[in-house]
Amino acid sequence: MQYLLMIYRDEAAMLAANKETVDRTIAAYAAYTEAMKKAGVYIGANRLRPTTSATTVRNSAGKTNVSDGPFAETKEQLGGYYLIEAPDTDAALSWAARCPGASQGAIEVRPVWTA
Amino acid sequence: MIARGNPSANLAGPPPRNGALEEVHESIERVARDSYGRLVAFLAARSRDVAAAEDALADAFRAALEAWPRSGLPESPEAWLLVAARRRMIDGARRARVHADAMPTLLAAADEAADLAGSAVAFPDERLKLLFICAHPAIDAAARTPLMLQVVLGLDAARIASAFLVRPATMGQRLSRAKAKIRDAGIGFELPEAAELPSREDAVLEAIYAAYGSGWDDVAGADPRRSGLSTEAIELGRLLLRLMPGDPEVQGLLALMLYCESRRDARRTADGEFVPLSEQDPSCWAMAMITEAEQTLRAAGRANRVGRFQLEAAIQSAHAQRALAGRTDWQSIALLYEGLVSLAPTIGALVGRAAAIAEARDVATGWALLQAIPNEAIETYQPYWALAAHLLKRAGRGAEAADAYTRAIGLCEDPAIRDFLMRQAGR
Question: What is the pTM of this model?
């Protein structure tokens, strides 16, 4: 079963963090990714640019609306994701708990529709 | 004598004065805390239906919240709740949740409850049977600890789910399934026969220890993340010891949990940084708890029946000796681990032995033991990688140590331990 681990955290706080904190976070994520690869659960992952770079497109009633910013204004923003292969939800939640982002914000775990 | 079916008839004393509402709520909470398991056990032992007993009791508590503030605390709150609960259970049974042939039993139980409620005699404590049922071989091993926490202590599914990293909805389903199994498989509310008592007792002990948390599998010595349930686990341990007085393995388990608990505050600096056991300041250990653990473990030894939990407690006792001796006796600890591995070769015990041997003898011997652990067992077992990194670093094998540190850091759930390992790895 595939799961998407979506990493939500306070973007403003992240952008304001000093270099040392940023370096430590990057190192922690690198170790997390490596542990996932070694355990054979890793499928893919990406870090997203800040929501200020987001554009939201919507077609409604034959009219296209393009707006600056993310789809929804929230206190914590999607900052990246991991796509993993795990035997069940319990295992996926264990991986979510190990994510460095779990102690900085929250990880939303969603099973992927597969045919 | 009380009026059947009218719990409020058992009320004593004048209505509470204004502002005493809080007091009543506190009393209800206290009764719930002290008696919940006893009441569930009494009702379930007679109806053989744990879920129905819990539902009936929940209704009774709701009725108490309404009635007690108006009419004051009953003389015997437990008896009041029993009478209220039995009425609901009979209603439930009439609505055919229970097989027709269970009706006579249930009615007899209801009469018994009513009689007990009217007398000053305490109703029988059936919690030992309930603990054994929760850890019954027919119950899925993963559901046993959650079942105990819910049925005996009244914890809600969401809290249990968080402690075990499971979806709350899934935990709710697992608990319901386990209770349905008890009812439908007709699992008896009897104590195990002498022949199967040891293995059944092990299952009860293991379920309680699982509630204490995985923290002490951790060689580095601490994971307070699951601290939420350690108090409850110790409570279950104390309860089991009251119900099985003098049992050496129950004493061993209680001592083990108390030793671990005594170090809780020493595991973090004031800034929240992780402190491994070897660097903890013994003056930060809770000495009263260590003293109680020592007494309990000594009492266990008098039975002359060594078991897994007594050995685990003895290992923690040896660590606690540092408070007096000023040094850790790794020779004794290594020996105790040898005994533990021969009795219960869990992954935690195997990693613990490797760590102890590395200290007692040399790094190479400890490393060899660590490497002998089967690969599939250690894939996601963080303490293995933390110890591997530590031993490789001490052996001067820098590149391999760096790889092991990466995995130990990547498998960390606790940010304080993650930071500690990153400092150790020089990252």
Answer: 0.88
